[in-house]
Amino acid sequence: MNYSTANITALIIGAILAFAILLMVRRDHLHGPYAIWWIAVALLAIILSIFPKIVNQTAQYAGISYPPTLILVLAVSFILLKMLSQDIHRTLQEKKIRRLTQKMAILEKALKDKELIDKDV
Asked: Sign of torsion, CA 75 78 79 80?
């Protein structure tokens, strides 16, 4: 099979990305569930660089006349999905933080009230 410079570049980028993600997970800089997205991106880049005909055949099947357009559309779609999942996760964390702050305020008030009662006795 004859690989173009673009295929070799995509293969190198995918391999470097996969290595970097695994290194960040190992050093505890990136949490496992987040790493899954990035490993999937790296593997997809590697697979598509090794088998470029996949993109051509998929684009032809989807009715897209210029196959690189398919890659861009899929990339933008995955970025939007990633952003949505991050926003959902951040919203859940903000709810948890708000509840923990409220519970902490209640406990601090109860502790302060108990200290005032103990001083009066």
From this structure: positive
Q: Greatest CA separation found in the chain?
A: 89
Describe the crossing of helices 32-50 and 67-120 by its angle, rounded to 10 degrees: 170
SS (H, E, C) the chain: CCCCHHHHHHHHHHHHHHHHHHHHHHCCCCCHHHHHHHHHHHHHHHHHHHCCHHHHHHHHHHCCCCHHHHHHHHHHHHHHHHHHHHHHHHHHHHHHHHHHHHHHHHHHHHHHHHHHHHHHC
* Domain extent listing, the chain: 1-51, 66-121
Per-residue three-class SS string for 102-113: HHHHHHHHHHHH
pLDDT grade, residue 1 (50/70/90)? low
pTM equals 0.68
Where residue 27 falls (left for φ over 0; alpha for ψ -120 to 50; beta otherwise) is alpha
Q: Which residue has the tokens 């099947």?
A: 61
Q: Which of the four pLDDT bands, split at 50, 70 and 90, describes residue 77?
A: very high
